[in-house]
Amino acid sequence: MHPPRTGRLCDGKMLTMVDAIRTKWMDPEFRRDPKTSHFCAVCQRDLKPGQPHRRVLFTLDAYAAVHAEDWDRAMGPTGEGYVIEAIGMDCARKLGLEWTAPAKA
Predict the structure, then answer these.
(1) 33 in Cβ contact with 46 (< 8 Å)
(2) Is residue 35 part of a domain?
(3) Does pLDDT of 59 surpass 70?
(4) What is the pTM (predicted TM-score) of this model?
(5) In 1-105, where does DSSP find H-type helix?
(6) How far is 84 from 77, CA to CA, in rounded Å?
(7) Which residue among 29, 41, 70, 105 has its CA within the 20 to 30 Å range from the CA of 59?
(8) Which of 3-17, 48-62, 88-102 has the lowest mean pLDDT?
(9) Is residue 32 situated within a structural domain?
(10) Domain tally for the chain?
């Protein structure tokens, strides 16, 4: 039997794979500069007011999305090293909707 895989939380605490935070690289496309302050975190296309979108939590160092069910554990008490940003519906579908959360109204 293989030993359990381990990972680290942002505070350095060791975790087993059962407790590990699931991440997935977002494959960003930074080819354009957004014209507004409300844009998709992956493709940087501007999101128009009222346009459907979702939210994604990702790590600042690796640009990896955190699974929506793991957000609370990943953020911990300080949330250091993570950011929540808007993601357009097309990019959210490519990433997988389970990796995002509905946008707040």
Answers:
(1) no
(2) yes
(3) yes
(4) 0.75
(5) 71-75, 89-95
(6) 15
(7) 105
(8) 3-17
(9) yes
(10) 1
Tokens 């407790």, located at residue: 19
Q: Above 50 in pLDDT, residue 8?
A: yes
Encoding tokens for residue 63?
């640009």
Cα separation, 96 vs 45, in Å, equals: 18
| pLDDT tens, position by position, 24-40 | 999 888 887 899 999 99
* Domain range enclosing 62: 21-102
pLDDT value for 4:
45
Q: Which of 30, 41, 89, 46 is nearest to 65 (CA)?
A: 41
d(CA 74, CA 70): 6
The rounded distance, in Å, linking the Cα atoms of 89 and 95 is 10
Q: Does 5 fall in a domain? A: no
